[in-house]
């Protein structure tokens, strides 16, 4: 076993985190006991952050005590691994689908570092009072929305200056008729006033039509 980042491990070339909720699975992932510690394998086909780690991500800025704003939390697959890592931190998990939120709440009931927010990420003013301006160390955004870049820019008010953002650009949600490379180029131009682009990671074969980017707030 190798610790590739703080609290992120490789076990037989598979990404894993230490299970904060011992004995419990979130999405039927594999649990592995090593010594007296239980690890959860982090499926790269289910989580773009795990895929990015396997594809050579360099800047991994989620730490034990991080405050993370997570937009597009869905049913908690990736959020649960972020919760394993930021075990003494706080994760604000925004999701607007009630159906997904019902599943997410089950995860949050057992993991006290995740705060679920049933809201539309296009309107940060509706949940901003829960978070506070400039309070987050990291932002993670994986929303299947045409307005992905606007959502990132609007929510960046919660991120500290110099804070990191992981922004998954889904070309098909923005414009299905254009070439992904053109859509990515436009999206990056739109956010470049607020963010410096540190990494662009192609996460094939784990996911297609997505560009995983690592940004730093200016
Ligand atoms: C690709 S899924 C996210 C998967 C998740 N990040 C993971 O790895 O476990 C995209 C999610 O974004 C949510 N979403 C889309 N637009 C949204 C918006 N405007 N506000 C909040 N959630 C949104 C969808 O309901 C969906 O659950």
Number of domain modules: 1
Report the count of strand segments.
12
The whole-number mean of residue pLDDT values reads 96
Low-confidence stretches: none
As laid out across the biggest beta sheet, the strand order is: 8-7-6-9-10-12-11
Distance between the termini: 36 Å
CATH topology: Rossmann fold
The CATH level-2 architecture is identified as: 3-Layer(aba) Sandwich
CATH class: Alpha Beta
User: What small ligands are held by the chains?
Assistant: S-adenosylmethionine
Give the overall shape, derived from the CA principal axes.
Answer: globular
Rg from C-alpha positions?
16 Å
Q: Give the helix/strand class.
A: alpha/beta
Describe the structure.
The chain is α/β, with parallel strands linked by helices. It has one domain (44-217): Rossmann fold. Helices cover 26% and strands 33% of the residues. It has helices at residues 48-54, 77-85, 98-110, 128-131, 148-155, 171-174, 180-191; strands at 2-5, 8-11, 14-18, 31-34, 37-41, 67-71, 90-95, 114-118, 136-141, 159-170, 195-202, 210-217. Strands 8-7-6-9-10-12-11 form a seven-stranded mixed beta sheet, sandwiched between helices. Strands 1-2-3-5-4 form a five-stranded antiparallel beta sheet. Strand 2 and strand 3 form a beta hairpin. The chain binds S-adenosylmethionine. S-adenosylmethionine binds next to helix 2 and strand 7.
């Amino acid at each position: 076993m190798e610790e590739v980042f703080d609290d992120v491990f490789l076990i037989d070339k598979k990404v894993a985190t230490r299970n904060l909720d011992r004995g419990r699975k979130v999405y039927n992932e594999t649990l592995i006991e090593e010594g007296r510690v239980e690890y959860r394998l982090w499926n790269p086909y289910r989580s773009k952050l795990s895929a990015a780690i396997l594809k050579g991500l360099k800047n991994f800025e989620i730490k034990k005590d991080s405050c993370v704003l997570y937009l597009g939390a869905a049913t908690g697959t990736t959020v649960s691994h972020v919760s394993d890592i930021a075990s003494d931190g706080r994760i604000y998990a925004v999701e607007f689908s009630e159906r997904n939120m019902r599943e997410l709440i089950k995860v949050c009931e057992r993991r006290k570092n995740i705060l679920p927010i049933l809201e539309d990420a296009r309107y940060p003013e509706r949940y901003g009072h829960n978070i506070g301006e400039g309070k987050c160390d990291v932002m993670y955004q994986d929303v299947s929305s045409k307005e992905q870049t606007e959502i990132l820019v609007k929510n960046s008010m919660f991120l500290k200056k110099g804070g990191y953002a992981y922004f998954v650009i889904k070309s098909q949600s923005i414009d299905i008729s254009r070439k992904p490379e053109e859509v990515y180029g436009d999206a990056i131009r739109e956010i470049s006033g607020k963010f410096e682009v540190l990494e662009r990671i192609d996460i094939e074969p784990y996911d297609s039509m997505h560009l995983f980017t690592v940004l730093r707030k200016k």
